[in-house]
Design brief:
Layout (H helix, E strand, L loop, with lengths): L15 E2 L5 E7 L5 E6 L2 E5 L4 H18 L2 H14 L3 E7 L4 H20 L4 E5 H8 L9 H11 L4 E6 L6 H8 L3 H4 L2 E6 L2 H9 L4 H17 L4 E6 L5 H6 L1 H14 L2 E6 L2 H8 L6 E3 L13 H15 L3 H4 L1 H7 L11 H10 L11 H14 L1
Parallel strand pairs: 6-8, 7-10, 7-11, 8-9, 9-10
Antiparallel strand pairs: 1-2, 2-5, 3-4
Helix pairs in contact: 1-2, 3-9, 5-6, 8-9, 9-11, 13-16
Bound molecules: 2-acetamido-2-deoxy-beta-D-glucopyranose (NAG) (3 copies).
């Protein structure tokens, strides 16, 4: 932990001022420490103790990583570590004051970066866990699943405001969303997928250190992007998964989607609950909706051919010959045991790895009730 700042300390030696974040890195050095100030590039310090130069260089590199990839958390950890090996120095990451002037500068910088990316044909961006998922995906992916088709349609339509879509858990929504991203080019100039908790991902995208700042920054960034000729699809995957989650940020959602609507940007929410999708879809009148292409959840289960292809990949990855499981028998054992049938990738791998037979999920969603009701009718 940092020591209390004493008056004898020389403050602000290292001034690497963040240009796209609301914080500054400040270095406090105790009297007697061997250092000399020396303006070199953006760093105002030259460390005279052994190894000081390399630490200064590492800090500059770390800072660039924060600016370019928003790795604030990792950088803060590193700073703690470096602090402990720098004689007499105390490094701190400080949150800058969000004055109107600072916010405006931040907004301009962010818009400039996005517009530049669009100019360079970098029109698709993936943040959060999905960026790793995309990198590791390879070619062994079942394409054209029903949910991928839904996402492709949703992305290709030039809408603004907010559209919600849903499918049961374990259906491969995240991979399907990634595969559908190129369709975003049809409707907008820039498509970004945020994968993770809504608040955290919005802070990451807008590069601010608190959620309070997200709304004010977004409400300026949205129109500024439009001014720069950029319209955006923004997909939220795994961002809102339950009512509590949604209600916690409901006010902010309304403000954000109003701003998005007025500027012609499209926010797309992917969720696993039909009831929640309906709630999000009706949050702000005409500005929000459940996708017109949305079908009942069971329609997003995989067809037998897709299940067969996926089983092939699963077996291959585990070095199991197909004869060992008996493909037909396997497929019939792990289809969803309700009136709709069909396959789910997660249920298939669970059956293969843990011999866990698929179950019908008991939720209170209207469709599940409908399913129960249909079965009841059949029995009667
Ligand atoms: C932009 O990138 C996409 C995908 O990488 C590619 O298909 C397209 O041809 C590129 N367009 C230009 C003008 O370079
Ligand atoms: C999408 O719609 C907006 C508003 O109607 C329009 O200005 C824009 O040109 C459209 N974009 C495309 C790619 O059709
Ligand atoms: C974004 O798309 C719109 C509509 O297709 C187009 O008019 C505009 O020039 C594009 N902006 C950029 C920066 O490419």
């Amino acid at each position: 932990m940092s020591r209390p700042r004493s008056r004898a300390m020389v403050a602000l030696v290292l001034t690497l001022t963040a240009t796209s974040h609301f914080f500054n890195l400040r270095c406090f050095v105790r009297p007697g420490a061997r250092y000399t100030t020396h303006p070199a590039g953006r760093s105002h310090v030259r460390y005279a103790f052994p190894g000081g130069e390399s630490i200064a260089a590492a800090i500059a590199t770390g800072f660039a990583a924060v600016e370019n990839f928003n790795k604030v958390g990792q950088f803060a950890d590193l700073i703690q570590k470096w602090s402990s090996v720098m004689p007499g120095a105390e490094l701190k990451l400080e949150v800058d004051k969000s004055t109107d002037d600072n916010v405006l500068k931040h907004v301009e910088k962010l818009c400039e970066e996005i517009a530049l990316a669009v100019d360079n044909n970098k029109t698709i961006s993936v943040l959060g866990i999905s960026s790793q998922r995309q990198a590791n995906m390879g070619t062994r992916v079942v394409d054209d699943t029903p949910f991928q088709k839904l996402m492709t349609k949703v992305l290709a339509v030039n809408r603004s405001g907010c559209t919600a879509v849903h499918a049961e858990p374990g259906m491969g929504k995240s991979i399907a969303s990634l595969r559908a991203l190129p369709a975003g080019r049809v409707s907008k100039n820039y498509t970004v997928l945020l994968d993770g908790p809504f608040r955290a991902e919005m802070m990451r995208f807008f590069r601010v250190s608190s959620f309070e700042l997200v709304v004010s920054v977004a409400r300026m960034v949205f129109p500024a992007l439009t001014q720069a000729g950029v319209s955006m699809n923004m997909i939220f995957d795994n961002g809102v998964e339950d009512d509590e989650d949604f209600h916690k940020s409901r006010t902010e959602w309304i403000l954000l989607l109003k701003a998005a609507y007025e500027s012609g940007h499209h926010l797309i929410v992917v969720t696993q609950s039909e009831a929640l999708a309906m709630k999000i879809g009706s949050v702000n009148g005409e500005r929000s909706r459940v996708s017109a292409e949305q079908e009942t959840p069971e329609k997003y289960r995989w067809a037998k051919e897709q299940a067969r292809e996926y089983l092939g990949y699963l077996l291959e990855a585990r070095n199991i010959p197909p004869e060992a499981v008996g493909v037909e028998k396997f497929l019939s054992s792990c289809s969803i045991p309700d009136v709709y049938g069909g396959w789910k990738p997660i249920a298939m791998s669970n059956y293969l790895d843990f011999n866990e037979t698929p179950e019908v999920l008991c939720t209170t969603s209207p469709t599940q009730n409908r399913a129960v009701w249909v079965r009841q009718l059949q029995q009667d």
